[in-house]
Specification:
Largest interface: A-B, 48 and 43 residues
Number of strands of chain A: 14
Helix content of chain B: 55-70%
Oligomer: heterodimer
Structural class of chain A: alpha/beta
Shape of chain A: elongated
Number of helices of chain B: 9
Distance between the termini of chain B: 29 Å
Distance between the termini of chain A: 77 Å
Largest sheet of chain A: 9 strands, mixed
Chain lengths: ~625, ~170
Amino acid sequence: MVLYDDSATLAGSCSGSSSSFSSKPPPMQQQQDIDDLLAGAGYKVRSSELRKVAHRLERLETAMVNSPADFSQLASDTIHYNPSDLASWVDSLLSEFAEPPTCPSEFIMDPVTNQTVANDVWTTTNPNMPQVHHNISYEQQSLNNQLTVVTAMEEDSGIRLVHMLMTCAECVQRGDFSLATSFLKDMQGLLTRVNTVCGIGKVAGHFIDALSRRIFQGIGGGSINGGSAFENEILYHHFYEACPYLKFAHFTANQAILEAFDGHDCVHVVDFNLMHGLQWPALIQALALRPGGPPLLRLTGIGPPSPDGRDSLREIGLRLAELARSVNVRFAFRGVAASRLEDVKPWMLQVNPKESVAVNSIMQLHRLLGSDSNLNSPIETVLSWIRSLNPKIMTVVEQEANHNQPGFLDRFTEALHYYSTMFDSLEACTVEPDKTLAEIYIQREITNVVSCEGSARVERHEPLGKWRTRLSGAGFRPSHLGSNAYKQASMLLTLFSAEGYSVEENEGCLTLGWHSRPLIAASAWQAVSHAPAALDTHRPVVSGACDRNFSSTHPPTALASLLFLKRNDEEEICFESGEKGTPGLDWPYPNKEREMGKNAASQHVHVSISPHLSTPLALPYNIFIRDGHFILT
Amino acid sequence: MVQNHHRGCHRQGNHETVGESKEKRPKFFINDHVDILIEILKRLDCRSLCVAASVCRLWCTIARNDSLWENLCFRHASPPPTSVRSVVLALGGYKRLYMGCVRPVRRRLGRARRASWAGDEVQLSLSLFCVDYYERLGGSNSNGRLVVGESSPSSSLMFLCKPVNV
């Protein structure tokens, strides 16, 4: 027990010191209150104070363990305590570790927390303390140490901070910005009292920043979303190193893709966010070692365009190609530069009908959930063209959180819980600078969730249940991740030194969480097989033959052309297509043409003028071109 | 452990010659019999092998041989298909694989080891090794701006190097 240990270590300190310590003789009524059992051991503790003293002894132990070895001074003989008066002895020791209460009056007025109780504790023991303090012959410890001691005061400050955050968010939702601003000031003051190096203080600091950004800068998003793609890549990379979420995502998705590609010799992977391509070395290696030998692997990586003319996608492709060459895997890479995923059109991916396609989306689909005023929401558009590719497997990894609720307060509360858990899990990482940069990465997410609205808010996370509904409605059926994926994920997590991670299986999907709160969910889907033409029965389907003619000299906008179409039932129709914006086909974007023009395959359609004119087809239509045939849907 | 092997061979050498004249007893130097030395070193564990590498130049050369480390990697697992070797050699060799990935992975998983994981440990190590190779590629290839792994060359394996917080 703690009591006896302390007495053993400090036995020396009470020798000969009683002369300088004048303990008040306890008044008669208190004498009868002394606990009998402890009195037999030599300690005088009031029975009513037993619980308090025990609690404080625990805190003292925590403080001694956490302090940077300064407490060796406590064991010297020059300290005058009377350990038999256990309550005051513990209090005086604790006071050396903890910061003194700075402004007790403020806490008394707060009805929310139980600060009033804390005040009572201090006031009752204060009469005992001054005498002891006079006799302390060593210098008071510097209270500016970065001790990670969580005293009762700090805990209550943390709780108070959370309450104030909620209240402030509620004010923001109501539109009461003046009250919210005053709360912000209070919170910033409270932050100075709370340890902001770890724990609730750090997360609260980020949320306070995000709230102030929302209040003062409006909901336009400011500079966060304008952070350059290069910065994002670096932060993403460090987030990858610091914690296992992305590694889990990559390895699980790779396992699903590997199993889906079993037996296929011509495979094509479409990656919705290439970044540094960290997911693909492991897949290339696994394909190289698979029993039947490696297939021909084509990788299409989608990423944001590089601002300064540097083709970062191509560089990553070259790196991956070199790796593939080292391990003897036939490899081809293609980069598609698009700043938003909904700008990508399926023909840009140049899917060969003979190959098996895998679509890989790591935390990208939620960005499409912002609803514009257009008819087709971006997510439906993208899901429909994914389905039209008829992929063998689609791997979807998304954050397991509900950050897309319309109400601000709900969103805020949910985000507070989610990111607190995530920051907790990040505490275990000790690799710098990964940890700091990973925190900045998460901080950007927080800022986007809290302080942006409309099209600026791209972090619209939805939980797994909603994604299931959405994907099932778009024509996909779930493909269960096998036990191999689960085993691999468990092994991967065991490698991380923090003991709090847990992998769970949720109806065929795997979730990775911290202390049983799932934070990221990985799932795999297959397209319910269908012919693309039957997708939308409202629109007439037109298909026909065309000549494919690659013209590199004519920029697309100058291609004024007529398309000669032949309907399936032999009726000839044709319509006029001019530049973008005029009624007609939606021609590809000019900058995409430059990308596509590198390869020989052509997406242009040869034109010929037909003498027969019929009713022009109305927009919008998607055009798929395959092997000399095109399909409009 | 190395000492015992050495002594054992010495004893064996003495035994063979005991039948001959006792005055002329040819000494047995293990370094003269490199094939036996290789067989012995093949069976050592990692720490002993590293210690053996600092005995003399011959031992160092032999201990650096990748096939010894290949044995170490697959010691507790079933023998791998032959294609693995070319892949591993392309990615940097067995010694690097063992020291960088297999050893920390085995040590970490040792706490929670299950028998069925032995082969998967090596597979997982191989995947991590491949990612590491890829990151190292970035250091030598690009014009410098793209590289983030340059500052910490094998940063993807750094999480394996931290002391485990038990």
